[in-house]
Design goal:
Blueprint: H1 5-30, H2 36-82, E1 90-96, H3 101-113, E2 117-124, H4 130-138, H5 152-165, H6 170-179, E3 180-184, E4 193-198, H7 205-221, E5 225-228, H8 238-244, E6 247-249, H9 255-265, E7 272-273
Parallel strand pairs: 1-2, 1-4, 4-5, 5-6, 6-7
Antiparallel strand pairs: 2-3
């Protein structure tokens, strides 16, 4: 959506140029440094700047008015477009960090508005503690193959698969104390979709390798999986998620972002959505079935 603040900034620049032109012109002409032809040229330039200023001001006013109309339309259309869009869908929410914060609340609102329900919620301890994970895995002979630094990617992929498939989840069962910060809901039933939130800074070392496997597992084995963040996120996770093949919504704090999330979870499309570089505003709008 257009933001008229950029045109306000442009208008301010024009004002500054106009003021400087007037001041310089007055100072020079007052001291007799310019002849009549140069003064006439300077006067013409000032006149042009005034006209440009007035045109920019009119454009800013028009665009501000259009934005207000667009926002009003979206506010009115949002409940209609979201109603029952994900009715009966079971969605997993996965948070990297202690909790989802405001972004988690925005996701909860979107799911509620679309008629979905949160099947289960897991917030992971990030960065991971490789020694604690190895200890938990080593105590179960069937899971020792996932222990060790070289297996962190495979471990992440297996956790992703179990999280969305449900049923028997031996790896999650073994690592719950070492890996999970917060949780709601059991792991019995399969999910219809997953929402991913990163509530920590970008990671490196063992945690980065673990997360790379987790992202890969979500992208290849999960039903619709969407990484989300707010439009004001300082360090965007979108490039990493997109590289892993996950869909993304970078403005889930807005009504359009919540609608985009519901559309992707409903199977409308995959890709990058939002307001940041390379993103489309919305997936294709599909009828509610």
């Amino acid at each position: 959506m257009f933001d008229f603040r950029y045109h306000v900034a442009s208008l301010a620049a024009v004002f500054l140029a106009l003021v400087l032109g007037i001041l310089i012109g007055v100072a020079i002409s007052g001291r007799g440094f310019v002849d009549k032809s140069e003064r006439k040229l300077l006067t013409g330039q000032i006149r042009d700047l005034r006209q440009e200023r007035d045109a920019e001001r009119a454009l800013a006013d028009e665009l501000q008015s259009r934005q207000a109309v667009s926002e009003d339309f979206i506010t009115q259309a949002y409940p209609v477009l979201m109603k029952d869009r994900l009715k009966g869908k079971r969605i997993v929410v996965l948070v990297l960090g202690a909790g989802g914060g405001e972004t988690g609340a925005d996701v909860a609102d979107a799911l509620d508005d679309a008629g979905a329900r949160e099947l289960r919620y897991r917030a992971l301890k990030v960065p991971i503690n490789p020694k604690a994970l190895d200890k938990a895995l080593g105590s179960r002979p069937a899971l020792r193959a996932y222990a060790g630094d070289s297996q962190l990617g495979d471990l992440g992929r297996e956790l992703a698969s179990e999280l969305v498939s449900g049923g028997k989840t031996p790896v999650w069962d073994a690592l719950a104390k070492a890996l999970v910060e917060q949780q709601r809901g059991n792991l019995e039933r399969p999910a219809d979709g997953l929402v991913l939130i990163r509530a920590v800074k970008p990671q490196s070392g063992p945690t980065a390798r673990f997360l790379a496997g987790l992202y890969d597992g979500l992208a290849t084995e999960a039903p619709p999986a969407v990484g989300v963040e707010s439009s004001s996120a300082n360090l965007s996770a979108v490039p990493v998620w997109s590289a892993a093949g996950l869909s993304t919504v970078d403005d889930v704090d807005t009504l359009l972002g919540r609608l985009a999330l519901a559309l992707v979870l409903g199977g409308s499309s995959t890709g990058k959505y939002g307001i940041k570089d390379g993103a489309k505003p919305l997936p294709p709008l599909t009828p509610v079935t």
